[in-house]
Amino acid sequence: MKLPLIIGIAGGTGSGKTTITKKLIERFGSEVTLLSHDDYYKEQHSLTYEERCKVNYDHPDAFDTDLFLSDLDRLRAGQSIESPVYDYTVHDRSDKTKTVPYAPVILVEGILILADPRLTERMDIKIFVDADADVRILRRLSRDVKTRGRSIESVVDQYLTTVKPMHEKYVEPSKKMADIIVLEGGRNTVALDMIIAKIDKFLKEE
C-alpha cells in the first residue's frame, strides 16, 4: 500500500485553518480525512470547573500528543481510529469518541503541530496559515462567544494571559518549519488552488 499524503495545517487561533480544511474536505470528500490536535486536549476530570478555566490550553503540555502521534501512525498504516471528543463548554474531554476513517490524504490541523518535531517529521507538506493579530482575536471572540458558551470578558482575559504569550513563544516561531505560508487564510484562493493541485497530483499518481 502506498503511504498516504500527510498535510499539516498550523497557524494561530482564528487564522483560518479551519476554513482551509473545510474547503479541502468539500473539494475531495472521502479522499481526505482530518485529525485535529484540538480533540486531544488532556482530560481534566480531577479538576473543578473553576480550576479547569485557569489551565493554559495554549501550551504544548495541554495536549496528549503521544496519543495523537499513536493515532496518526495508525491512520498512516491504513487503519481507522477513534478520536477523543473535547467539550469546550466545560473545558474537559468528553466520554464520547468519533471515528476518523483512513483516507489517502490525511489533514493534520492544530495551532502547535509545527512546533513538535515528532509531528513535522511525519508530514509531507507543512502549511502555516497566517493572519493579522487583530483579525485573529476578533474571529476567536466571535467563535468562542457564539459556539463555546464563553463570555466576552473570559475570552479577552484568556487571550491576554495565555493565548497571546503562547502564540509568541511557540506558534509564531514554528512558522519557519512551513513549506507553504498562506496569508489571509481561506480567502487566499491562489494558495488554496496550489494546495488543491498538489493533492490532485498525488491522487492521480496513486
- Overall mean pLDDT score? 91
Strand order of the largest sheet: 2-5-1-6-7
CATH topology: Rossmann fold
Q: Which runs of at least 5 residues are low in confidence (pLDDT < 50)?
A: none
Radius of gyration over C-alpha positions, nearest whole angstrom: 17 Å
The strand count comes to 7
CATH class: Alpha Beta
CATH level 4 superfamily:
P-loop containing nucleotide triphosphate hydrolases
**Helix and strand element order:** EHEHHEEEHEHHEH
State the gist of this model.
With 206 residues, the chain is α/β, with parallel strands linked by helices. It is 41% helix and 21% strand. It is built from 7 helices and 7 strands; from the N terminus they run βαβααβββαβααβα.
Descriptive report:
- With 206 residues, this protein is α/β, with parallel strands linked by helices.
- The chain has one domain (5-205): Rossmann fold (3-Layer(aba) Sandwich).
- The protein has seven helices and seven strands, in the order E-H-E-H-H-E-E-E-H-E-H-H-E-H.
- Strands 2-5-1-6-7 form a five-stranded parallel β-sheet, with helices on both faces.
- Strand 3 (81-87) and strand 4 (92-100) form a beta hairpin.
- The N and C termini lie close together (10 Å).
